[in-house]
Amino acid sequence: MKLPAFDYACPETLDEATALLAEAGGDAKVIAGGQSLLPFMAFRLAAPSLLVDLRKIAGLDGIEVADGEIRLGAMVRWRDILDSAALARALPLLPAAIGHVAHYQIRNRGTLGGSLAHADPASEFPCIAVLCGASVDVVGAGGHRTIPADELIAGPMETTLEDDEIIVAVRFPRWPEGRRWAFDEFALRHGDLAIAAVAAAYDMDGPHIAHARVAVMGATDTPQRVPPAEDALNGRAPDDDTFGAAAAAASAAIEPTEDLHAGAAYRRALVGTLLRRALAESCAREREAAE
Amino acid sequence: MNTPNTYIGGHVERVEDARFLRGAGRYIDDVTREGMLHACVVRSAVAHGRLVSIDAEEALAMPGVHAVLTAADVTGEIPTIPFRRPNPKIGPYAQPVIARERVRYFGEPVALVLADSPELAEDAAELVLPEIEPLPAVVTRDAALAAEPLLFPGTTEDNLAAVFTAGKGDAEAAFAGAALVVGDSFSTQRQTALPLETRGLLAEWDADAQHLTVHGAAKLPFFNRRAMAKMMDLPETSVDYVEHDVGGGFGARGEFYPEDFLVALAARITGRPVKWVEDRREHFAAIAHSREAEAQVELALDASGRILGLRGEMFMNVGAYVRPNGMTPVRNCAQFMSGPYRVPNIALQATAYVANKTPAGTFRGPGRYEGSFFIERLLDMAAARLGLDRRTIRQVNLLTNAEMPYPLAQIRPSDGSRAETSCDSGEYSEAFHRCLQAFDWEEKEKLDGRLIDGRYHGIAVSCFIEGGASGPAETARIQVAGDGGVEVYVGSSAIGQGLETVMAQIAADTLGLPMECIRIYHGSTTYLAEGWGSYGSRATVMGGNAVREAALALLARFRALAARRLGVGEAEVSVVGGQAVGPDGAVLDLADLAAEGLAGEAKFLNSDATYTNGTAAVHVAVDPETGRVEVLDYVVCDEVGRIVNALTLHGQVTGAAVQGFGSVFGEELPYDDDGALLVGTLADYLVPLATDYPRVRCLSLESYPSPTNPLGAKGAGEGGIIPVGGAVANAVASALRAFGVAPNHLPLSPARVWALLNPPD
Predict the structure, then answer these.
(1) How confident is the model at residue B4 (pLDDT cuts 50, 70, 90)?
(2) In sequence order, what E strands does B99-210 have?
(3) B68 in Cβ contact with B41 (< 8 Å)
């Protein structure tokens, strides 16, 4: 569990960084907080010849809540998200989800760019990015491009990033006034990898739910939207029957993963339970706010 | 005038903690030597196979790699690791210190790489290629119970390392005359003790002096020294085991492991200091496992709930070899399953079978935790069948002080360790009542089985005994230094339990000195000619009484020397508060006589176990949809004979209870069908975090001193874990009574509790 040998570079510009990555031809890894990469290296599941550290590159941090969108730099750490009053107002779902990430020390290190690039199916940030239709700005040796979050994630621990590409920012569309949200996660101990988690957001069109989005993580091999659950919500009243129907639809729709701690049947049931409870909580939160 | 010291019994803060909390602890990985090499163990990735060859060429070619040792570097027979409690049957199952022709478990050492840094050693270890022809892996009980010997063909007749019986009275007759017989199958899962600090060793070979020093001792340095000396063909006095700070033991750490020999051999061959620090992944495969037990047991009762008899059989998967204490959980489970209850007739059989898994050893409350789970489940099942209160069925069976000494079941074959043993003292219903009172059973019972805010509440009570004070002896020596400080040397080891504090309390009280004067030295063979160590909840009783006796010897010597100096008779000298006072008021301090050899030695002998008794009560809430069980309250009351330090005692009891929750809810070492261990990280092996179980309360009683030792103390380091399985499982059963579930198989992880409620079609 000692790190294998590697070279280390700490460039000051993105151009230098992408050039180093291009030169290494897939043998290099970008390091930001090291939350996942360092354990992977310690277990020798990854043995990159070169680590390109992003910490000296300007412009990769910062949380900007503008009129049209919210821009989060790739080096924004979990602690920054949890501490941001602006985010708590503009995108409360995000800090609610990030509160489930690991433990204090790790939240001080881990970055959202690293989380997206690592694409662990049990990670909260990619799930929220997919749910919210976030756009991921990347830079490579050949220039810039923007990838929708759901197209970035290609599979478990797999992305569509090229070897020389670095995530620089993630942009979330601003939410309309009054959008409701839901998040719940089940882990064996707080901070452990999610056995299952659900996220949802919806608007109210009069007495009915509209623009519903539901996503699942931890229970499936990628974070993913669950259209049948969204269909079960849209156009219905936000009540126990509707939430129960959405939960049942989500349970039925997913293809659950299995591991040491949870089988597929358990995960399938858990997704339904979490979604029903989280949606109920989304209404309770509204009621509390109204009081 | 001085007043007698009263450190014993007080809430004395641990003297060790200032050092630990400031980061000034010195653990084995903090110990370095000039020119030392770092070792990395190459382990078998195959659970069972023939070791054909080992290709180390590429590894040896790496710059900075000095050697790759294999079985070929061991001259003569490969030494095997000795048993702590030998019995004739287990001989062929001893573990060779390195595999030569056959590997028998995933993680078995096959080679040792020596390099300039731990990183290089690990790089090189990846290049060492053992060629292993796989054999079918024996993983399950069914496979192991097959007629032919699968792991040790040629030297054994089958795969059963031992079959123990625990007997008492006439069980057959008792069952024939019973009003009720309840029985079922139960199991506990394979676990390990998981000390937070992994193991580590640093060996130094002094070729001129022909002397070996092994740093990294824990638990029982003197036994290991003896084992090492024999393997190395050296006199015992040419080997020393040196203890540094130790980050937890819990039964697993400090036994003689293959690495003890391999690291020492490496130092001897290379002539350089060699250090090995286990990493967490290899720890899971290398350190002793424990607790993998299945039972089919029955209880016979009369209509009023009195236990008439206990019978049945247990099967323990002890892994590929019998390690030094591998039989302890097996024999303990049979002998102590009757726990604190009056069980006149017992016929239990415990079979230890070998399989291609990591060899087993002890883990806090070995065999007792398993046995307690089995009998406590049976008692709740019996209470339900007889329509009795779950308290009543325990109350009528708890032992009384009038019955002491109360003999437990006899173990056969005798392994030299308490084949016959008796509970020593105690009115067991007192801890029971105090526990339930503190728990507020009557109030909480109103919630039992009820669904409140989506969760079912349940309560349960579970009683236990804890054997302590493993014999036969412990040693101590006390001397007064030139500065008047008192140096206490004791054979006990410190494994995180607060030994320095407790020994200083006992020495200070006996000598009538402030604790600040006392300096404790422990756990290294350099301090005393012989000693034992810390295991089986023995240090306070055995080491504590040895320190007390050594202090009394020192006081006698002080009196004699003072009398001589003052020119008076010994009877005319009074010794109080570290001073000798003559008839005319002349005063001598200890320091005044230090130069004349002011010392005392003692060897405290005792082979009778102490039996702490206690009761635990638990209140849980079960989420039927997620299967999550929350511990809302947990109260444990134990009667320990004499409380030496209430703070360290409660630390032990609380820690043990929380460790028990880890056992019940999550910790598990699963294997696949090929015998590969599936857990290698703390992300998968779910020990409780410090914040997970905030609601543990403990109280301790000291009304019934143990008659086995002058202090009256009883071992109390393990009791906290023993009742946890039974208590929690019974509380879950009570919470989910509407569904009629039987939580008879641990762990009760969320997925498994959910599966109890949602059985597969």
Answers:
(1) low
(2) 102-103, 109-115, 129-134, 160-168, 180-188, 191-192, 200-206
(3) no
Q: Do B692 and A2 touch (CB under 8 A)?
A: no
With an 8 Å Cβ cutoff, is B666 touching chain A? yes
B692 touches chain A (CB under 8 A): yes
Is residue A58 within 8 angstroms of chain B, CB to CB? no
From the number of C-beta atoms within 10 Å of its C-beta (0-12, 13-18, 19+), residue B52 rates as: exposed
Binary contact (B118, A2; C-beta < 8 A): yes
Bridge partners (DSSP) listed for residue B353: B160, B317
From the list B500, B534, B460, the residue with the least C-alpha distance to B249 is: B534
d(CA A73, CA A64): 9
- Tokens (6 digits) for B124: 């090189």
Same fold, B31-135+198-246+253-286 and B289-469+608-757: no
Q: Is B541 helix (H, G, I), strand (E, B) or coil?
A: helix
Is B684 within 8 Å of A5 when comparing Cβ atoms? no
**CB-based contact B684 A260, cutoff 8 Å:** yes
CATH topology of domain B289-469+608-757: Aldehyde Oxidoreductase; domain 4 (3.30.365)
| A257, A266, A268, A271: best to mutate for the B interface, most B CBs within 10 A | A266
Alpha-carbon span B350 to B334, nearest angstrom: 6
Task: Pull the structure tokens for residue B199.
Answer: 């193991």
Instruction: Find out whether A167 and A73 touch, Cβ atoms under 8 Å.
Output: no
Helix residue ranges per DSSP H, chain A: 14-24, 37-42, 78-83, 85-90, 93-98, 104-107, 112-118, 124-132, 149-152, 227-233, 240-253, 264-290
Structure tokens that stand for B430 in this block:
């007192």
* Nearest residue on chain B to A40, alpha-carbon basis: B681
Mode of pairing for the β-strands spanning B200-206 and B274-277: antiparallel
Tokens of B5: 């010291």
Q: What is the pLDDT of residues B134-144, one digit of tens each?
A: 999 999 999 99
Q: CA A5 to CA B61: how far, in whole Å?
A: 17
CB pairs under 8 A between A and B: 61
Fold for the domain defined by B17-26+471-605: Aldehyde Oxidoreductase; domain 4 (3.30.365)
**CB-CB contact of B222 with B329 (8 Å):** no
The token pair at A19 is 């050039």
Would you state the structure tokens that stand for residue A128, as one six-digit string?
């929220």
8-state DSSP, B666: T
Q: Which amino acid is at B469?
A: A
Q: Which of B515, B473, B523, B472 is nearest to B497 (CA)?
A: B523
Q: What is the ipTM of this complex?
A: 0.96
Q: In chain A, what is the straight-line distance between the N-terminal and C-terminal CA atoms, in Å?
A: 54
Confidence of residue B2 (pLDDT cuts 50, 70, 90): very low
Biggest alpha carbon distance in chain A? 61
Residue from B62, B281, B622, B625 whose CB has the most chain A CBs within 10 Å, to mutate: B625
For residue range B646-671, list pLDDT tens digits in order.
999 999 999 999 999 999 998 999 99
As a whole number, mean pLDDT of residues B35-53 equals 98
Bridge partners of B703?
none
Q: What gap in Å lies between CA A90 and CA B745, rounded to an integer?
A: 48
CA–CA separation, B749 vs B759, rounded Å?
15
B54: β partners: B130
Calpha distance A107→A95 (Å, rounded)? 12
- Domains of chain B, by residue range, sit at 17-26+471-605, 31-135+198-246+253-286, 289-469+608-757
Which domains are assigned to chain A? 7-53 (3.30.43.10), 63-173 (3.30.465.10), 180-290 (3.30.390.50)
Inter-chain contact A188–B666, Cβ cutoff 8 Å?
A: yes
Retrieve residue B444's tokens.
Answer: 């909480």
